[in-house]
Please model this.
Amino acid sequence: MNGSMTGPTTAAPTARFDVAIVGLGAMGSAAAAHLAARGVSVIGFDAYHPAHGLGSSHGDSRLIRLGYFEDPSYVPLLQRAYANWRALEGRLRDEILTITGVLQIGLPDSKIVSGTLKSSDMYGLASETLDAAALRARHPAFAIDDDEIAVLDPQGGYLRPEAAVMGHVKLAVADGAVLHFGEKVTAIRPQAEDITVETATGRYSVGRVIVATGSWITDLVPDLAGKAMPIKQVVAWYQPADGFLTTPQRMPAFIRDEGEDGSYFGFPAIGVDGVKVGRHAHFMEEIDPHAPNPPVNARDTDLLDAFVRRRLPTAAGLRVRATTCRYTMLPSEDFLIDLLPSDPRIVIASPCSGHGFKFTSVVGEILADLALDGGTRLPIGAFSFEAMNRFIASRGTRAELENPTL
Ligand SMILES: Cc1cc2nc3c(=O)[nH]c(=O)nc-3n(C[C@H](O)[C@H](O)[C@H](O)COP(=O)(O)OP(=O)(O)OC[C@H]3O[C@@H](n4cnc5c(N)ncnc54)[C@H](O)[C@@H]3O)c2cc1C
Model:
């Protein structure tokens, strides 16, 4: 192993690196792995230690699905993401992505159901539509109204987020990346030739910088203040009343469109804690990224308990765990992956509005492309500063949007 993983350094380093990555969570660790695999000299920094539970990338599971209801334009990126996840698994000789199928449940004209069908039709993706009776017969864990339907994405499943972050870190180091954990970056100072990255304990000279600091992004990219909004997201785990029905073999992962009540997501019992559920964007409560994650309270658990009782009655036995995580929402709920307009040597990776984990494996590739070539052949036109500012000009900032979409 050529690379190294260390804690804070004490002396001002003299080595120069081609690329620095600030933030080694989901996006930054993937960028480090892609850059190191290309033989680039790369240094990465994280304020904490890999796969920690203080940001946006913990909690055992993340959904991945191909028929993307949010917009069909995400599908080509997802196809690349699937290929990259499998390549990562191949190198690690470990399972990161497990296929269980993903059910998208709701009224036929709901955004989630109709959007999934639209994406699947447009890209010729496999999908199967089940009416209420068929869903009850095949997947009895789910309660469904007679007028609702479910669209099964047979390629959907879940990722193991902590294992994915750790896997990318491991490969990056194996390929020569130098990763400093427990070393917070305090400033990025563009100079005429190089860029200086300052931490509490050192100064580093680099050619390019990737900023992937998740919910803390406005510290280093103040232009995003008022646009990238960290919010509280809560998920809870339940011991199933009937364990037979909630195994991954009988219960796919799911997203449920509940109309004005928003959308809920969940996973079968894939670990000892049982079935996991959350509501997308929860109560859309803004949080201070510098304060510890706010504790789970009774309002949080009442919401999820009521959903589980109503929609997953066989899983409504006993809530055994609940935790807080962070979404960081952009006004359009899309991503921002672009060169910084004021200095294109700096690449920005936004935390992806609560649906970015599944893309991590391809975002790492894109960030490496942007840092090395200033562009990418992968389709990211919708994730530019220009697109974000156009949306804000037409609709307003996050804080101004009264009724965020699902
Ligand atoms: C509960 C929950 C459920 C979700 N479900 C899904 C899902 O099912 N499917 C899906 O696709 N997505 C999902 N998401 C979204 C997805 O997890 C996020 O988009 C993704 O994890 C964001 O990764 P990130 O790298 O931007 O942030 P993080 O992983 O939080 O990484 C940011 C890193 O930057 C570091 N850092 C910050 N500031 C500094 C600094 N100054 N110097 C050095 N390091 C710094 C932090 O320590 C941290 O490690 C979910 C998110 C949550 C919270």
Summary: Residues 22-28, 45-48, 55-57, 59, 62-63, 184-185, 212-214, 216, 219, 233, 235, 265, 278, 325-327, 351-352, 354-358 surround flavin-adenine dinucleotide (CB under 6 Å). The longest strand covers residues 318-329.
